[in-house]
Amino acid sequence: MKILNTMMKTAFLAVAAVFAAVSCETDPNSLPAEIDAVPKTITLAREGGEALITVDATRDWKVEVSYTGGDTEDWLTVTPATGGASNNSVAVRISASANDDADREAVISFRADFLTSEVRVSQPGAHVDYTTIEEFLEAPVNDETWYTVRGTIFVIEKSKSTGEESTYGNIWIKDETGILYVYGLTTTQQDSNDQSFPELGLKLGDVVVLRTLRAEYDGEPQGGGTIPAYYISHSPAEDNPEDDILISDDPAQNWLELPEVEIDDDEVFTFHHTEADGVRVRNYSMLYNTTERLALWVAYPLCDIYTASGNRTDAWGFDPKIPDAWEPIIPDSWGVNGYARGHQIPSAARNANKEMNRQTFYFTNMTAQDYDFNSGLWADVEELERDAASQFDTLYVVTGPILDADGDGYWEYFQDNAGNSVAVPEAYFRVLLGVQADEYNAIGFFYLNGDNGHTRPQESDLCTVAEIEEKTGITFFKNLPPERAAEVKSQRNPELWGL
């Protein structure tokens, strides 16, 4: 081991020497602000060890470490933790001692001015290998193979008759790969559910290890079933804090679809990227309200690189960029008759591949939408949008809820599957901006979240973007050429939009 350690130290010094040997006359502060740290993911051995991160930054930078899974103590060492603007790459060494506990994870954020580059670090612990939820969902249905699954409990179902936690142990769990419904959990292996679940004393946030067969009900995969899952071990919620995860607003961009980004204390601006035709592209952006548990608007571009046929995932799950504690917990449904989990950016607008489609099923992209409106009039507007996109280079879209459409200062709330209050919008808006060369064409839609008196979009439904701005207080398409903005936002051309 001494020889190996000496070799690793020698290699590190050699790499550091190479980085230090290269210089350039250009002042890095005169260059565009950039920071990049690679590799993006690192796995350290359970026995402990070191790894190198290469940092390129044209501004002074510093390191922040967030412990996002498992041990929340300072188990990761990062050297150096700060650096200056440079034309040259800098070698940063990370190290950790042996991990004799559970798996642990951390995010290292390299911050320079308003820019951030993240590296995710994981280290397995001294436990058996678990089947990830993603692997479990992909496994075939069977009544012979038992899987060991580990996940955080985020829903414990209640009895519909008593309102108390069910004695059958019907729970939802999650890991970094997905979410899973477990229909029945018992203290020991049983042929049928003995209703022993309350003896376990499990609570929301506990990380539970269980054994289960791969079952299915009504076409949906699940753990447990006729033969229930059974308990192996757990760690209490207080040992697995999630609220400690740092979150900050993503930097505003100059994308044409973006409204003016105005952020209150309980709001977060964020965006997601994906791949299309092998190229990294933006998927969508949102302004998310943590109090109301919904996005106040979602903005996205639409062109042929985003659409195809098929690839719908139904991968309902948490948004990795928003703490779970702030999201609506709706893995199954709202649990309220007459309301659907309504997408803001539609699944059908992002079906070129499964990864970009999966991101549309994040809970943060959902609102409580009247079922008939969701599957009728609003779905037709979304189809009109996709049809219209074909006549432009790119169609830019902003859509969102209006909580207080009647201006009385009141709107309704539902409880999600975990008992959290979630706002129910009174109305919805949608604004479209089609761009072809130097030509701009815009239109808006406004509908109540319910019966609008018709089931297909009509010419009378159309609004100018300026009218939607007045209804919402949002300034749309802030990156339009200033000399064109007023004229474009006053357009109302039904024929162009097929009405």
Automatic annotation (TrEMBL):
SUPFAM superfamilies: His-Me finger endonucleases. Mg(2+) binds at N374. InterPro entries: BACON, DNA/RNA_non-sp_Endonuclease_sf, Endo_G_ENPP1-like_dom, ENPP1-3/EXOG-like_nuc-like, His-Me_finger_sf, Ig-like_fold, Non-specific_endonuclease. It comes from the Bacteria. Pfam families: BACON (PF13004), Endonuclease_NS (PF01223). Keywords: Endonuclease, Hydrolase, Metal-binding, Nuclease, Signal. Residues 1-20 form the signal peptide. Gene3D superfamilies: Extracellular Endonuclease, subunit A, Immunoglobulins. Residues 281-483 form the ENPP1-3/EXOG-like endonuclease/phosphodiesterase domain. The active site is at H343. GO terms for molecular function: endonuclease activity; hydrolase activity; metal ion binding; nucleic acid binding. CDD domains: BACON. Residues 280-483 form the DNA/RNA non-specific endonuclease/pyrophosphatase/phosphodiesterase domain. This is DNA/RNA non-specific endonuclease. It comes from Candidatus Coprenecus avistercoris. The lineage of its organism: Bacteria, Pseudomonadati, Bacteroidota, Bacteroidia, Bacteroidales.
